[in-house]
Write a structure and sequence with these properties.
The complex is a heterodimer. By secondary structure, chain A is an alpha/beta fold. Chain A has helices at about 1-15, 55-70, 90, 95-110, 125-135, 190-200; strands spanning about 20, 40-45, 70-75, 85, 115-120, 135-140, 150-155, 160-170, 175-185, 205-215, 230-235. The mean pLDDT of chain B is about 95. Classes of the chains: A alpha/beta, B alpha/beta.
């Protein structure tokens, strides 16, 4: 009976949360001189809450709202028609950046993950703090010819043509549990290539984690059933 | 006067030897004759990586630094953990056309030709105290460009911090008088 009641409370809590309409002049003074952009929707991504106190639900929602509100959308970058999700403005808000890392660390800290692989370049910003906090090693996945020494390479498709991603030989051992981190998932091509690199050396990819997902691009479908966790979905 | 985590009396922070031993030297990369100091092997040792970050954090905590600027790409690995720990914002300094929106640019000289570093307009406010972070200082050209970008935006660059210095290349002299703090010299 009380579970049903709590279930009702949870649903009503969800209904109270609005779609986040993020003004593209982030409010805090440190970013007040950023150029204005279009209004955009940023919807915090979260599942139905498990049975926890309402206080912790409120805290998580507050963190997600703040994270979403700090992301800046730049129209027509890198080319016309693309609405670029810029996380650099999140990095200008120490508490929002801290919350982003904390939420991911909370999710992964007790999962036996020994490798965090970050995709160049913005995966280098989010991956290492997570790795440090959970005691995992950090493995950079890079564009061709950046990593010195012996590498393995994985090709992946772009809209026009292909690109390559590289990982150091010997960085990851067979059987290690790995997390792949990037700032954003769009088509999923990059993350799928990252996963293949890790699996080729025998690692188990536990999950891919991104700050932002662009759901219409269906990147999730490219991940071969591997779970994807994101904090914010951008409409 | 140079600063590193080895004090003059040859007293060394006990965390340093492990950090040094983690650095891998790759000969003839990116071209013949260069002994490349590879920090990726440091990142594979969680304790050594944590110690590296801790050494910087201990130095910069409580010094009112509100900006950590990291130079693409390996400065993006070391800068953010330091920024998070000291409560500063993190600013990526990037190669051309990577940062979206309005940027300022600084050209700098390479051995052959020039390169360019960019920073977002509005990321830094005048008067803010800033730290520049990269994995390594060689000729100092990149760090010099980073300092220029921050100063053009009105920031006060307090120090440059790198894991490794290549002292023969005298990069320290190109930093516009800014102090340099390093953890080790090249292997």
């Amino acid at each position: 009976m009380h579970l049903y009641f709590f279930g009702m409370l949870s649903l009503s809590f969800l209904h109270k949360v609005p779609l986040i309409r993020s003004p593209l002049l982030p409010q805090p003074s440190s970013t007040s001189r950023l150029s204005p952009s279009l209004l955009c929707f940023h919807k915090p991504s979260f599942r139905l809450p498990s049975i926890r106190s309402m206080a912790s639900e409120g805290a998580e929602d507050h963190r997600l709202k703040r994270i979403a509100s700090t992301i800046r959308v730049i129209p027509d970058f890198p080319k016309p028609g693309i609405l670029f999700q810029d996380i650099t403005t999140l990095l200008l808000e120490p508490e929002a950046f801290r919350d982003t890392i904390d939420m991911l660390v909370e999710r992964y800290r007790d999962k036996g993950i020994s490798v965090v692989a970050g995709v160049e370049a913005r995966g280098f910003i989010f991956g290492p703090p997570i790795a440090l906090a959970i005691g995992a090693k950090f493995v950079p996945l890079r564009k061709p010819k950046k990593l010195p020494g012996e590498v393995i390479s994985e090709e992946y498709s772009l809209e026009y043509g292909t690109d390559k991603m590289e990982m150091h030989v010997g960085a990851v051992q067979a059987g290690e549990r790995a997390l792949v981190v990037d700032d954003l998932i769009a088509t999923g091509g990059t993350l799928a290539a990252a996963m293949r690199l890790l699996e080729r050396v025998g690692a188990e990819v536990v999950e891919c984690a991104c700050v932002i997902e662009l759901p219409e691009l269906k990147g999730r479908d490219k991940l071969d059933g591997r779970p994807l966790f994101v904090l914010v979905k951008a409409a | 006067m140079g600063e590193m985590a080895v004090r003059e009396e040859k007293e060394q922070d006990p965390r340093i030897p492990r950090i040094v031993s983690c650095i891998r030297v790759v000969p003839d990369f990116p071209k013949k004759g260069i002994m490349f100091q590879d920090i990726t092997t440091l990142l594979l040792d969680p304790k050594a990586f944590k110690d590296t970050v801790d050494l910087f954090v201990e130095r910069y905590t409580g010094r009112d630094i509100c900006v950590v600027a990291g130079v693409e790409a390996r400065g993006l690995i070391f800068g953010p953990p330091i920024a998070l720990a000291i409560g500063a914002k993190f600013i990526p300094l990037r190669k051309p056309r990577k940062l979206p929106g309005e940027v300022i640019s600084e050209n700098y000289i390479l051995e052959y030709g020039t390169d360019c570093l960019e920073m977002h307009v509005g990321a830094v406010q005048p008067g803010e105290r800033a730290l520049v972070v990269d994995d390594l200082i060689a000729t100092g050209g990149t760090l010099c460009a980073a300092i220029s970008l921050l100063e053009r935006a009105g920031a006060e660059v307090v120090e440059c911090a790198c894991v490794i210095e290549l002292p023969e290349l005298k990069g320290r002299e190109r930093l516009n008088g800014k102090p340099l703090y390093i953890l080790m010299e090249s292997r």
